[in-house]
Write a structure and sequence with these properties.
Elements: E1 5-9, H1 16-21, E2 29-33, H2 34-46, H3 52-56, H4 60-74, E3 81-86, E4 89-92, E5 95-98, H5 101-106, E6 109-115, H6 119-128, H7 139-160, E7 164-167, H8 172-180
Parallel strand pairs: 1-3, 1-6, 2-3, 6-7
Antiparallel strand pairs: 4-5
Helix pairs in contact: 2-4, 6-7
């Protein structure tokens, strides 16, 4: 497998980490969570620790600069694929903000995979996960956000010229084949 950068994106609560954890034993790749990279880079440059809530309330564009710089610092180009677990939109207290295509271009994205889920399941998983303070959204609101996120993914991949694949949890084998492709 050649080294590449892949973005696995989807709404918060869709289960991106769970999806990837089922693959870790079979494939050699690094799982890089965007929020953890941002927090690590902020601490690296300023000795200031960020909480998840602090991260949500910061300027999105500042966070994305931290993400790009941290990605390059923590995951230099090597002989292992890096899967960036992140988002194409961020649900903030002031509304939904799309992530600029330049962020994905700057990390050298080879392709993007959007993990789509049932909005009712996402809403339920968000309610069960007490470790994060996410805005409460109804399944209908989540369905609207998911459409926005997929449209943003299409726009990003069109702009930077890389493939986009929209998958569900049941398509793990297809994702595994994508990891192996050149």
């Amino acid at each position: 497998m050649n080294s590449k950068s892949i973005a696995l994106v989807g709404l918060s609560g869709v289960g991106k980490t769970t999806f990837l954890s089922s693959l870790v034993s079979d494939f050699s790749f690094r799982h890089a969570e965007a929020s953890q990279i941002i927090k690590a880079q902020k601490e690296y440059i300023s000795n200031e620790a960020l909480s998840s809530e602090g991260l949500r309330n910061r300027d999105i564009h500042d966070n994305q600069s931290l993400l790009v710089d941290g990605f390059h610092r923590l995951f230099p180009s090597e002989e292992i694929t890096t899967v960036l677990d992140g988002h194409t939109i961020i649900d903030t207290p002031t509304g939904v903000i799309p992530i600029p295509a330049s962020v994905f271009a700057d990390i050298g994205l080879h392709f993007m995979v959007y993990l789509r889920g049932d909005p009712r399941v996402i809403a339920s998983q968000r309610q069960l996960d007490k470790s994060r303070n996410r805005p409460e959204r109804s399944p209908n609101e989540i369905a609207v956000q998911q459409r926005q996120a997929i449209e943003t993914a299409v726009s990003i991949t069109d702009e930077i010229g890389c493939p986009l694949f929209v998958l569900t949890h049941s398509q793990g084998e297809y994702f595994e084949r994508l990891l192996l492709r050149d």
